[in-house]
Structure formats: structure tokens, C-alpha cells
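Issue: ligand-bound run for nicotinamide-adenine-dinucleotide - logging full I/O for the record.

Environment: standard queue, default settings, no custom constraints.

Inputs:
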Amino acid sequence: MWKQNTNNPLENAKLQMQQAFETHPDFVQYQDQFAKLFYPDRTIEISIPVRMDDGTLQIFTGYRSQHSDIRGPYKGGIRFHQDVNADEVKALSVWMTIKTAVVDIPLWGGKGWVIVDPRSLSRNELEQLSRWYVRWLYKYLGKDTDIPAPDVNTSGSIMAWMMDEYSLLNGEYTPGSFTGKPLSVGGSLGRKEATAQWGIYVLEQILSYSWEKIAGKKVIIQGTGNVGGIAAELFHKSGAKVVGLSDIDGCIADENGLNIPEIFKQKKLGKKITDTPGVKKIDASDFFSLESDIVVPAALENQITVENAGTIRAKIVLELANGPTTKEADEILFSKNILVIPDILANAWGVVVSYFEQIQNNTNHYWTAEKVDAHLQETMKKAAQWVYETAKSHDTFLRSGAYIVALQRIFEAMADRGK
Ligand code: NAD
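Outputs:
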């Protein structure tokens, strides 16, 4: 049995999978495959030199973890953030393998990271950093090898620079080497709203099993970026009340519902959410205990912990961030009968739409928004149903259900390839 260490995301991933592994009696034949699952095929560390605008040279450390390519190329985002360690990158790459298996697409796990606070870089410095990342990793990347995408603090423009650098090195336009690109250079329609919209579709699907709806529910959301910001706008449009919002600048609350369109209009003009007039500013330690029906962590890992899980008053946690709940916190939520819709199901749209983007790039034929949405809804419905029914038939919670669905596919593929 692994050591309990909730601060280490790789340990958390192992503990969560161990639980699913033990729930399913047939998995006993896959002991070897299970043991191998926690070792990425390779984790590459690189040193990236950037000539800063003031003429000095700064060296940044970057990583790419390639977890497994058993059923297809490696796939996963690149994050630019100042706080990271190699274990975190490895854990995120394992999660990508699990996530792609839950939704049953032929791509497997990878993840990248550069230790940097991108807000401290100019546009020119950021572009150099992005291009050097590709130069150092070129021979390990590619449309049939490893296809990165955006993650925390990376964007479509960064993917466009990276794809451009890759294409230059490759000697031909290779749009399928990176996904999450702008539409002008081979991006897919439906990408921007991707993760948040999928999460809300999944929530609707799960709520529909008990004849419930999103409209009228009170929601609190941690994170106002690509995922949390769009989730706030979509919840608002669906008739839910967003009663709490938090990000790096602080936390705000209004029990009657925050004015989401106005907050995000102001945010686009450079205002902080805490600058919103007429809202209550609260301490981060009180955020998750706000009265609500649905809690949406959409920022970083390990945010719901033993310290705050017991204070959550909602009935549902919709995990749009990756790994936001520690193993022990998960058990507290389960004991309080709080339904956790796990990250590996709830935030998988990014990778599904990335897959659709890749199909479009590789066939050089582009889909309408309606076609993207129809394919996504079909994929989501199947995945949510597999997870829900598997959890029900094993009398376990949704996270274990999702892991069982994924592990079944992974073990079969590993065994068939003789791994
Ligand atoms: P982002 O950089 O756009 O936003 C991150 C948000 O978290 C920001 O609002 C930031 O202020 C907030 N934040 C950072 N530290 C915080 C703290 N200590 N307390 C409260 N808020 C804090 O990133 P994103 O793309 O929205 O990603 C958010 C999460 O969703 C990550 O876990 C990411 O891995 C996951 N995710 C992203 C995608 C995607 O397509 N962007 C897909 C799947 C999963």
C-alpha cells in the first residue's frame, strides 16, 4: 500500500486508482500493468535560455512528461507557472492517460510545464520562451508522437508560436503538432468554451438521473480564468446564481447572486474581481463554506483538503480543475454524501475537442460549430453514462466509477500490446 501523502499529486493519483483497482475483482489479473501505470515512459527536463529585454540572460526550467502511448500519441497541456515540481508534472500526465481512456479517444497522457511567472515577462520574452521549449523538445513532439495544448497561463497565441516553431524545424506546415490554436491557424470551433461547457453538460446529464436542473442552484467557483471564468458565465446563462467567486486576487460573495456579466466585463478591462462595487469580500479560508448547492474548483490542484472539506455545505462538487481534491478530502465529502463529479470526467472536453482539432488538421477539412458540438455531446453522454452506471453497479462513488472505466480500457490495451 502506498504512503498517504496528500501534498503529492502523484501519490494522490495512485491512492485514487488503488481504490478503484481494489473495487473491481477482475483487475487482479492486471497487477503488473497496474504497477507499471505510475511510471511515465519518460520525463524530460530542459533548461531554456531567454535573452530578456534588458539584455540579461535568464534560464528557465521546463519539463515534458510522456506517460504512455499505448493507444495513441501522448497528449496534454503545457503550463507556465512558478510553483511546480517534477512529481506534479508526472501526476498530470498520468491523469491525461486516465482522462483520454474515460472518454475513449485514441490519445494518451502527456504534460508539460515551465517554471515561470509569465506575468513577469514581456510578449517578446514569452515568445522566445515558447519557441525554445519547442526547439529543445522537437524530436519528442509531433502530430503522431506528442501533441501539446494550452493549460494554466498558456494560450492559443502560445500554441501558434509553438506550432510555427515546430513547422519551421519540421520543414512543413504541421498544424496537428499543437492543439488549442487560434482559428486562423487550424484551431477548432468550440475550443474556447470547451472545458467549462463540457463540465456543465456533464453536470446536467448527472442531474437528469435524479430529475434535477441547474437553473436556480447556488454555485461558488474558484478560479476566473479560461475554465472558471467561462463556467461562471455559462452557469449564469443557465439560470444558476453564482454566489461566490475567487481567484488569485481574492474572494467575493453575494447571496443574491453576483452580477457575472458586469464582473467579467470589468475584468476584461483590467479590473480585479475584488474591485466589484457592492460585493462582500471574504477570506479565502471561508470561501468553500459559503452556502451553496454546487462548488466548482476551477483553479489549481489540492484546493479541497482535510482543512476545508468538512466545511463544504453544497451537495455537489464539480471538479473543473485537475486534481483539486485530496484523497482524504474526497473521503470526507463521500462521508457527507456530497456527490463529487470527478475531474477525469468533468474537465475532459479540452482533450476531446483537441482530438477533434487534430482530426481536422490531419485531414485538412474543417468542421462547423454544430458538427463539433454534436460530436462532443455524443462523446460526453456516452462517457457520463459509462461512469454513472459503472459506479452504480460497483456501489461506489463516481470517481472510482470513472477510474474503473478507464483502467479496464488501459489494462486491456496494455495486455494486448504485451506490456
Ligand atoms: P487559468 O490560468 O486561465 O486560470 C487559473 C485561475 O486560477 C485564475 O483565475 C487564477 O487567478 C486562479 N488562481 C490561481 N491561484 C489561485 C489561488 N491560490 N486561489 C484561487 N484562485 C487561484 O487556467 P485554466 O485554463 O482556467 O485552468 C484551471 C484549471 O483547469 C487547471 O487545473 C487546469 O489544469 C484545468 N484544465 C484546464 C483546461 C483548459 O482547457 N484550459 C482543460 C482541462 C483542465
